[in-house]
Design goal:
The structure is a single chain. The protein is of the alpha/beta class. The chain has 10 helices and 9 strands. The strands form 2 sheets. Strands 5-6-7-3-8-9 form a 6-stranded mixed β-sheet, with helices on both faces. A 3-stranded antiparallel β-sheet has the order 2-1-4, covered by helices on one side. The chain is globular, with a radius of gyration of 23 Å. The N and C termini lie far apart (about 60 Å). About 30% of the residues are buried.
Length: about 290
């Protein structure tokens, strides 16, 4: 099978079976999934625990070898060293050296990524600023909250300016404002042409971020498509208009009921709890 130059990740009939000590099949973790992820796309991988999300991500990272099927990443085998240099990864748990500072940790990972001299220093400083860690840049990360540690983990995933970014629970432990900042950062990266694969249990975050999603269950893709299409109710539409007087509203509903045989429900256009929280905190900060 030839790899498409227009796909960042291409998987067809991908399977992964774990064997027991005697070489007998023990767990069928991934059962013939097919995925195609395009450049500049934020793709969400959803599913309950044990659905095969982590196994799939590990195969894309080249940490596990597929049992069968086809998998290419950036047009090559995911085990290719050159491909790995174009990838950034943040695991579900940020395993950081707790006695090192944020600057020291990012400098260490920048060295591993091949950055040197002034480029390394400039990149580390930019990541520190981008993640809002300036005030804590010289504190040992062992003193960090989980949310601050996640910011360091995300920063190390972006140090090498990767073309493909893989994130496992990227907003875990973040407060709503930091969560919104991270989501804005990821959307900006996608606008710049970066491709992002996210595994998360935070469905609201996935709805905000993902262009397309795949839902895994027991190692199989049971639903996939654009978020808009998956959420749409084809047989219903919603009209939004300025609030009319009670008399006009009643007349409009009567007319629609005569024409359609169905009396529409009426509700107010709502906001998300996230937007209310951020606006409230921002107003309080400005006032103080």
């Amino acid at each position: 099978m030839s790899d498409s130059p227009h796909l960042i990740i291409e998987a067809h009939d991908l399977t992964k079976t774990f064997l027991d000590f005697w070489g007998r099949p023990k767990v069928h973790a991934v059962k013939g999934i097919t995925l195609e992820i395009r450049p500049g796309e934020i793709f969400g991988l959803l599913g309950p625990n044990g659905s095969g999300k982590s196994t799939t991500m590990k195969m894309i990272l080249g940490l596990l070898h597929p049992t069968s099927g086809h998998l290419s990443v950036l047009g090559q085998s995911p085990r290719d060293v050159a491909v790995k240099s174009r990838m950034g990864f943040m695991p579900e748990e940020s395993y950081l050296y707790k006695y090192l500072t944020a600057v020291e940790i990012l400098t260490f990972y920048a060295n591993l990524s091949g950055l040197s001299g002034s480029v390394r220093k400039e990149t580390v400083n930019r990541m520190i600023e981008q993640m809002g860690l300036q005030a804590a840049r010289n504190r040992p990360v062992g003193e960090f909250s989980k949310g601050m540690a996640r910011r360091v983990g995300l920063a190390q995933a972006l140090l090498n300016d990767p073309d493909l970014i893989l994130l496992d629970e990227p907003t875990s432990g973040l407060d709503p404002i930091a969560c919104r900042e991270v989501k804005d950062l990821l959307l900006n990266l996608a606008d710049r042409g970066k491709t992002i694969l996210i595994c998360s249990h935070h469905l609201a975050d996935m709805q905000d971020l993902s262009h397309r999603v795949a839902i895994l269950l027991e190692g199989e893709v049971c639903a996939a498509g654009s978020v808009k299409d998956l959420l749409a109710t084809p047989d219903l539409i919603r009209l939004t208009l300025p609030r009319p007087s009670r008399e006009k509203l009643s007349a409009m509903l009567d007319y629609l009921e005569r024409e359609t045989g169905f009396r529409p429900g009426v509700d107010h256009t709502g906001r998300t709890l996230e937007s209310v929280f951020i606006e409230t905190v921002s107003r309080r900060r400005i006032a103080s």
